Every structure is written in C-alpha cells, then in structure tokens.
Amino acid sequence: MFIRRALCREKMFNLNSYKNFSRLFSSETSSGIGTVKLSFGSPGVSLFVNEEVSGVTVPGMEGDFEIVGKHIPTLAVLRPGVVKVATTQGRTQSYFVSSGTVTVNADGSVQVSVEELCEKKDIDISKVQNALASYLKMINEGDEQKKAKSLIGQEVYRAMLAFAEEK
Predict the structure, then answer these.
(1) Prediction pTM value
(2) How many CA atoms lie within 13 A of 23 on its CB side?
(3) DSSP assignment of 50-116
(4) Residue-number span of the structural domain to which 72 is assigned
(5) CB-based burial of residue 87 (10 Å sphere; 0-12 exposed, 13-18 middle, 19+ buried)?
(6) d(Cα 117, Cα 57) in Å, to the nearest integer?
(7) CA–CA separation, 133 vs 152, rounded Å?
(8) Same domain for 146 and 70?
(9) How many CB atoms lie within 10 A of CB 125?
(10) Local structure of residue 29 (DSSP, 8 states)
(11) Roughly what angle, to the nearest 10 degrees, separates helices 125-138 and 144-165?
C-alpha cells in the first residue's frame, strides 16, 4: 500500500484509470506468424542482423526461455549460458554468451546484445578448466570484492565448460 501511495499520485500515474487490463502480444509481422526478426551480436561481432528465424532460446536470469513468433514484448537480463538460434531452414546454431540483454519488441523483432560470445569450436576446454580452478581458489582468499569476483568467474566458466563438453 505504501508503494502505491508513493507512486500512484493522481497527477503522476493513476491505476484507477486502467479498468481493462489486457495482455499485449507482439503484432503479426510481415514475415509470418511463426518467425521473428533477430539481431544478435556483441560489440565486435554481428551474427544476425534483422534476419528471419524460427525462434531463439536465451539463458535468462530465472532460466532459459524460447522466443517465437507473436511473443509478448519482453526485456530481460541474460546470465552466462547458451543462445540457440533455430533457423528457418531447420538448423540450430548455438553460441556461448557471458552476459547481456534480450529485447522482444511489439513488432516481433528481437535484439540479443551480449558482452562476449563464442562458438563451441573456439573453446579450449583445458584453458576453461584452469580458469575455473583459479576462481575456485580465489574464493578463500582476500576480501568480499575478491569473493564476488570469484563467484562471477565460477558461474561463467562452469557454464562455458558445460557448453563445451556437451555432445
């Protein structure tokens, strides 16, 4: 109740004026109901630029979720994990991402912007294992800042190792 009083003043935002709430889905795009227009990349790499795909699965903070045609508009933060793109030709392309965001717009377009990405073939498993070991060791050393850095490093390298070792 306190938050409603603080945020919903008559002149700022009046919830009482919204009598009929409805769930809004993205509009049907010219490319068809079952596809989305995907833009996916990192600061140095653009993998997809407004390309029509069947769907994309992303590693959200609360779990993986799939975006297909007519998905509800969404904004989400990505955790370390795998982005899977289902092409209209029936192929699936997978990429490891360290972090990022996904935006699903009302027009059916999707933007996946990540800090870093790589394909499975580019991962050196022994280097990932060594990096993970160093972050595991770091958890018992130093202050709270080092512990936080260790936890982040462990999350990234465990996810990367799982992706690299996946058959």
Answers:
(1) 0.79
(2) 5
(3) EEEEEEEEEEETTEEEEE-TTPPPEEEEEPSEEEEEEETTS-EEEEEESSEEEEE-TTSEEEEEES-
(4) 36-120
(5) middle
(6) 15
(7) 13
(8) no
(9) 11
(10) B
(11) 160
The amino acid present at 99, given as its one-letter code, is: S
The number of distinct structural domains making up the chain is 2
- Tell which residue, 104, 37, 23, 27, has the closest CA to residue 70: 27
Which tokens in the block code for residue 30? 């010219």
Q: Which residue has the tokens 């512990």?
A: 147
Per-residue pLDDT of the chain (167 residues; tens, 9 = 90+): 334 334 444 444 444 544 444 444 444 444 445 789 999 999 989 999 999 999 999 999 999 999 988 778 889 999 999 999 999 999 999 999 999 999 999 888 999 999 999 999 999 999 999 999 999 998 888 788 989 999 999 999 999 999 999 87
Side-chain-side CA neighbours of 116 within 13 Å: the count stands at 8
Q: Is residue 3 part of a domain?
A: no
The DSSP output letter for 43 is: T
Tell me, yes or no, whether 138 lies in a domain: yes
Nearest to 164 by CA among 125, 133, 116: 125
> Measured between alpha carbons, how far is 100 from 98 in angstroms, rounded to an integer?
7
Distance CA 119, CA 31 (A): 28
